[in-house]
Amino acid sequence: MSYSKQALDHLERGQLDEFKKTYASALRHDDDDTLYSLAEELYTLGFLNQARRIYEKLLERYPEEDDLRVNLADILIEDDHNDQALDYLNQVTPDSPAYVRSLMVAADLYQTQELFEVSEQKLLEAQRLAPDEPAISFALAELYFTMREFKRAIPLYLDLIKEGTPAFSGVNLVERIGVAYANAGRFEQAIGYLKQIHSGDMTPDVKFETGFTYLQLKEYKSAIALLTELQETDPQYTSLYPYLGQALVAENRLDDALKILQEGLGVDQYNEKLWSYAADIAARLKDEELTETYLKRGHDLDNDDLDIVIKLSNLYVKQERYDEIVAFLAPYVQADNVDPQLYWNLAVAYAHLEQFDEATRFYQAAMPYFMDQTAFLKPAIYFFREMGQRDEMLTLLRAYVKLVPDDAEMALMLEAEDEDDY
């Protein structure tokens, strides 16, 4: 029995001290082919330093063997020695039998560095040189999947499946296609693939994507079942909570939806979006106190989240808390970090506080954005009429009557104004 075989046997039994001895003997006594096989086994088992030492020893003896350089580069990338890895790869010339493989290893290196365009160039060159190599097609598909360029990944995965390769390097290509279609917004195609995967065989990510896809297709019961299963098996998967809540709301299960969001907040209390969505559900349940509490928690986490600012100021308007609206929104106006809805809310607040110059300023600022919303137009018409600002009033009045021609009061007001002009 060779020392290499003995070394592997010791590893299998967990006898690390004996392994070290027989590994050293293998380096001294075993032939080169046996050592090469040992290095491949050690690499597979994760003993990278030991495999690297063998490859370096063999490269000294066979400097023309570029496969050894590529193997060493692969190990160095695993150990995060990227510059050394590139040194080896750059020594492999285009006329070498190992050149295509060196391109693939280089592509993997650049992908880990998020230099996706360089990685793509390497893989496309490899594909040009070896167009029938499925490993290159798979690597390209995985690169595009990582880049979220799903429309480019899908045909590559489909070609591999058509060639009789439903899985590659431990990756289920049916899952990949389903998830890629879902992320590309092609939900009907996505669910056709995702349904083929048994729920028990799904990773949490695939389970989430499948539940999300059911939600987009308005198959709410299926979405609820799958996302609930994901929550039970992996409650730390915080992305599921807003979508499970959304599915429950669609089924008019508001109390259950709020409970789910509260459970999500128990897992991730630093997610302002969860607080905001929980506030939405509390508002639908007409619990204004809870709505405000949740919005304030979300605002404390990110006071630049204008969606939360708008919701909170809308609540203050509804509750006629006009002084609080002005105080709350003042910093956003000063910083010019505003949404048109905030102009509207400030206009309403200043009008009720009888600070008419400020109310006028904010109504005028809001006007261009809400000319198609009757809820804005009608009060603004009355405000500008009271202020004697006829031009603004007529502009809004004409827009309103065009939207609601059967509002007799507004139609008569417009008619009277037109007669005055005549």
| Count of extended strands | 2
Strand content: under 5%
Amino- and carboxy-terminal Cα gap: 113 Å
- Give, in spatial order, the strands making up the sheet with the most strands: 1-2
Order of helices and strands: HHHHHHHHHHEEHHHHHHHHHHHHHHH
Our Rg estimate from Cα atoms comes to: 33 Å
Describe it for me?
This protein is mainly alpha-helical and 422 residues long. The chain has a domain of 52 residues. The chain has 25 helices and two strands. A two-stranded antiparallel ribbon has the order 1-2. Strand 1 and strand 2 form a beta hairpin. It is elongated. The mean pLDDT is 93. InterPro entries: CellSynth/LPSAsmb/PSIAsmb (IPR051012), TPR-like_helical_dom_sf (IPR011990), TPR_rpt (IPR019734). This is TPR repeat-containing protein. Keywords: Repeat, TPR repeat.
Compile the SSE list and pairings.
Elements: H1 3-13, H2 16-29, H3 32-45, H4 48-61, H5 66-78, H6 82-90, H7 99-112, H8 116-129, H9 134-146, H10 150-162, E1 167-168, E2 171-172, H11 173-183, H12 187-194, H13 204-216, H14 220-233, H15 240-250, H16 254-267, H17 272-284, H18 288-301, H19 306-318, H20 322-334, H21 340-352, H22 356-366, H23 374-386, H24 390-403, H25 408-421
Keywords: Repeat, TPR repeat
Protein name: TPR repeat-containing protein
TPR repeats: 204-237, 238-271
